[in-house]
Task: structure prediction
Amino acid sequence: MKLKEKLEHLMAVYNLCPRASLSQNFLIDARCVSRLIEEIGLEEKDIVLEIGAGTGILTSHLLQKAGRVFAVEIDESLCKVMRDELKGKSNLKILCGDITKLALDSLFLEEDSVKVVGNLPYHIASRIILELVRKKWWELMVFTIQREVADKLLSCPGKKTRGALSVIVSYYTDVKKVMDIPPQAFYPAPRVTSTVVKIEAKKKKLVAEDEKFFLDVVKASFTARRKTLLNCLSRGLSLSREVARDILIKSKVPEKKRAEELEVEDFIRISNVLLRKKGRGKIAHQSD
Ligand code: SAM
Result:
């Protein structure tokens, strides 16, 4: 049976309608499914975390090759479909819940090498990726996301699409585009083109002295797109202009630059310089 017919059959049997509010656009193109599976490169020892498993179309393929599959799905009616259709699969654990609320760190250990995959729910794709890149227990992530978000992930310094998401994700990982997927490959067809990306943890990364503070600096730098870095930093971090200017001089970053022009290393230097200055208690805030 073709994937579209199979999906229609399941929808009819279980009396389901795709829920737009949960980004339920189901993959119905078998070639895309095969390509995704190929790109993940599964082995018997692999632990896989699938996000947004839906009716289990991708899950059934993952189960054939991986040692263990954790399939997360928020919609209880779809979890029931999976429980019935994938009954007896001893290497499957269905987690019926919200991926943004699951305690993943208690499920996996730091020394694990989990492969994370999924046709992500588009309305929370950036949030899921931002959360996951900081975890230590994954080795590879292969996601289908909307092309607009993929463009941000793949964006180099100087590009209009570069934002806090691009900088933060490239601090932790290397992202590669695998392929675009047209709307017709899904049912119902989404309004946008989708892109498959492959995300790998950086083998060797330059490390900020305080990662949390580095993230605050990156976010503050992108608070107002049209403003210079000097303005964004001083407003976003409540620093006086003099302090913000001094930090930029010491970080060797021209104050007139805009955040999207900077390399990850520039943000690391800025956050390290600022952190040391904070540590010495010499920060003058806007209100001082
Ligand atoms: N994997 C299926 C496929 O490829 O056909 C479905 C992909 S569909 C784009 C996204 C899935 O994510 C839907 O099944 C939806 O119910 C689920 N979902 C939406 N929000 C979620 C959340 N917060 N946590 C877990 N799953 C979620």
